[in-house]
Structure formats: C-alpha cells, structure tokens
Design a protein that fits this description.
With 449 residues, this protein is an alpha/beta fold. It has 16 helices and 13 strands. α13 packs across α14.
C-alpha cells in the first residue's frame, strides 16, 4: 500500500481541555493566545487510521537505518507522524535517531529483572537526545522561512545539550542561533559545542530558570523563534524514541520506562509516542513510567508525594546532573497528565546515589552520564521498594553521551565526589615496565574476581 495517496495533516492545539483552540504550524506561537496554556502538535488520527497497524510497522521497518534521504533519520523515517506536510527539501537532519537499544542482560539478571535495556539516545550527532527534537523544530523554521515568514534567528535557554543541538542544526540550515547559558554551570564539553558552531553565546549570571525567563521575553519579538521544549515542535521529534524502543523490542512494550526529568519535555514526548501507537493499534498496552529527578532539583517529586494535587516551583540546588538542574519546569502540566495516564511514579536520587548508580552501570559495559545515573538510581530504589517487581522488563532512557561528562567520571574514580561507594572506584595502577611488575599486580587483582 502506497502512503502517497493519503493526505496527513497536523496543527497546534491548546492543551487546556476547556479551550482546545487550534493554530497552524507555520504560526509563530508557543502557548495559547486565549488561555496561556502550552500547545501540542495534534495529528489527524482518522487519516492515519486508514493505514492498518501492520502496514505502519512494515513501513517503519523498511525505512529503519535506510541510506535514502530523509529516512536515514529515525525521526524522518516517521515523517507522517511528525510533520506530514513539510517539503522534503526543507528538512534539516544529521541522521539523528535509530540509536542502539543496549541489552544489559547481565545487569538484569543480577537485579532479578526479566530484561533491562538502555536506550542510548546520546549516541547522536551532538551527543544527546535533544537532536531528535531540534531536527523537527529547525526543519519547520526552515520551511517557514522558505514560505516567507520573517524569522531572523532561533534562540534557546540551555543547561548545555539544547544549546549544542540548536547551534548545530541552525548552522546546517544557515540560520543564526542565540544561546543563553547560566554562567559557570555548564560542562566544558557542552559549552564549546555552540561556540564552535558559530552561535551567539551569552553567559547570564543566573541559573537555567533565570535564562528561561529572559529567553521567553526575548522571543516575544516574533522574528526570533523560541527553540526550548515549551515549543511543542521539539516534542514531536522526541516522541520517536517510543516508536524506536517498541520496534527494537519486536513491537513489544516493556513493563516500565525510566526517564530522567528536568524541564519535563521528554516524559511528555515519550508518553505521546506510546499513546499514538496505542491509538493506531500498533501496541495493545501502555508501559508504566518512572520519572527520575535529582533530589537537588525535584519539584515534581514533591508534587507526586501529594498526589499531584498542587505543584510549586523550587530554586534548584547544584547537582552533578546539571542538565536537569531545573526548579520551574515548563512542561509540568503535560508531564503530570502523562504520569497519571501511565500509572507512573516519580523517584529521586541523591548526589551519591546517582554517582554510584552511573558507576555501577558502567561495570556492565555502559558509560553513563550523570542523568542516566539518576534514572538508574531511581530504578534501583524502585526495585528495592518492590514497586518494580522481579521478572518485569525495563527500558532506561539515556539522554546524553557519557563522553560529554568526563569531569564527572574522573571525579568519581579519583574520590572527589563525597560519600560514594568506594568499592565502585577504579584507580589507575602505577607499574614497573617489566613483565614481573605486571604479573605481580595482576596476581593481586585477578584473585579478587
């Protein structure tokens, strides 16, 4: 069956159930002009349902890791579910998506799980899952500029990864990028990425939430387009993670998905991806979700403890998981809706817990960034509490490449992070340049295994 004879459409729709106002995707708008709530990209599901579930599966299978433009991208291989009306020539892609689903079977066995997989979203051009959303946003901006919409630049506030993704995709499209970063709170590897890609990088003497407040004011000027996750175009790309996970598991759904959360766009995105597959008959159940937060920046956890009856922003304290050091997440209402629908929970990890969990996972062949450490720590605590049952299947979302956090890794193994588990540290051993010197050390250490 050819998909070309079908017309698929998408639009913005207000997330407020009592409003539901719609807007075209080419309009420069981020929240509802009537009630102020965030928007979602809404697809014409009736048209999508004309294609049988098995046909969607076979289509996505045939495009997966294709050499043909734009299907080399895991996002654009699902174009009909993302931006169905965009012209292919305006797509800006760096081959994002189609990332490895790491089978941590030995780790799963030791934890008593049926299976444990880690979705390596950070194995991407700029080293994080943010590429998945940025390809969609920048492509749509490219289309809008081609259609005559007067956009001069794209802008974001960032703790690191968003700025790297925006700067790269904007540079590829030839669109100026403006980056607002909290001064002295971003790793060197993350900071140098937008600088190298030629973005206008401003270091503000504030935290991420302060940068976010400024960029919201800045982008009231409609010629500067907002690229943060409150712009729901970002969510459209990130929801492809759910489809990829399901496809890589043979179109089966895990019992649990564990997602690190800061600004909370990712849990919204993954939830929407699973919901879309459920609506179109591709899956028959929804997974449960663990939203994992660093204890030093955990406003949603505090809300969860009260049954989501209320939510209060906090001033986020410094955390090793710097990308989720956010006290006033913009996508909180979307996230709560998803967590309620998916029977989800919120868990937190202290600094030592996230550092230990990242290091423990590394001993099973991973190389975890601190945010994945938050997710793994939350999983370990959920297993210990009995929320995650023995024999269940789990997928952990790894949001960034561990190589972007070399300082974090060095600090752990050099004993510079307080209160961590010393048995997980691994030091480099000085050795004489002789076989006997090598054998003496190996004799001591191999006996331990």
């Amino acid at each position: 069956m050819s998909l070309t004879k079908y017309q698929f459409r998408a639009q913005f729709r207000c997330t407020n159930e009592s409003c539901r106002k719609t807007y075209p995707l080419h309009q420069v708008i981020y929240s509802c002009s009537s009630c102020g709530e965030l928007l979602n990209v809404e697809h014409d599901l009736d048209s999508l349902k004309k294609i049988p579930a098995e046909e969607w599966k076979s289509t996505f299978e045939s495009r997966f890791r294709s050499s043909q433009f734009p299907n080399a991208s895991g996002v654009w291989g699902k174009k009909e579910w993302v931006l169905p009306e965009i012209k292919v020539e305006n797509i800006i892609t760096s081959g994002e998506g189609t990332t490895h689903l790491y089978d941590a079977s030995r780790f799963a066995k030791d934890l008593g799980l049926k299976s444990l997989h880690v979705k390596q979203c950070g194995v991407s051009h700029t080293g994080s899952f943010k590429d998945l959303g940025m390809t969609v946003l920048v492509s749509q901006v490219n289309q809008m500029i081609a259609d005559g919409v007067p956009i001069k630049a794209v802008a974001c506030a960032s703790t690191g990864d968003t700025s790297a993704a925006l700067a790269s995709y904007a540079a590829k499209a030839g669109i100026p990028a403006i980056i607002l970063l909290p001064a002295n709170k971003v790793s060197t590897a993350q900071l140098i990425q937008p600088v190298s890609n030629g973005a206008i990088v401003l270091a503000l003497e504030t935290d991420f939430d302060g940068c976010m407040a400024v960029v919201k004011e800045l982008t009231q000027e409609k010629s500067i387009y907002l690229a943060n996750s409150m712009n729901s175009l970002r969510i459209e790309g990130q929801k492809s993670i759910s489809v990829e996970i399901t496809q890589q598991l043979g179109w089966n759904v895990p019992d649990w998905v564990v997602i690190p959360g800061g600004n909370l766009g990712n849990v919204s995105a993954l939830g929407m991806g699973f919901e879309m597959m459920f609506e179109l008959g591709i899956i028959q159940k929804l997974p449960r979700i663990i939203l994992a937060q660093a204890k030093n920046a955990s406003p949603l956890y505090e809300s969860f403890k009260k049954g989501f009856a209320e939510f209060s922003p906090v001033t986020a304290e410094k955390t090793l998981a710097s990308a989720i050091q956010i006290g006033d997440p913009v996508s909180v209402k979307k996230a709560i809706r998803v967590l309620k629908k998916f029977n989800g929970i919120v868990e937190v990890a202290t600094e030592e817990e996230l550092a230990n969990a990242a290091a423990k996972g590394d001993l099973y062949g991973l190389y975890n960034d601190p945010h994945t450490g938050v997710a793994l720590a939350s999983l370990l605590k959920s297993i210990q509490s009995g929320v995650v049952k023995q024999g269940e299947s789990v997928v952990v979302i790894s949001t960034a490449n561990g190589l972007k956090f070399t300082e974090f890794k060095l600090a752990f193994h050099e004993g510079k992070i307080p209160k961590v588990d010393d048995t997980l540290k691994n030091v480099i051993l000085p050795c004489k340049p002789t076989l006997s010197g090598v054998m003496e050390i190996l004799g001591k250490h191999l006996k331990k295994t």
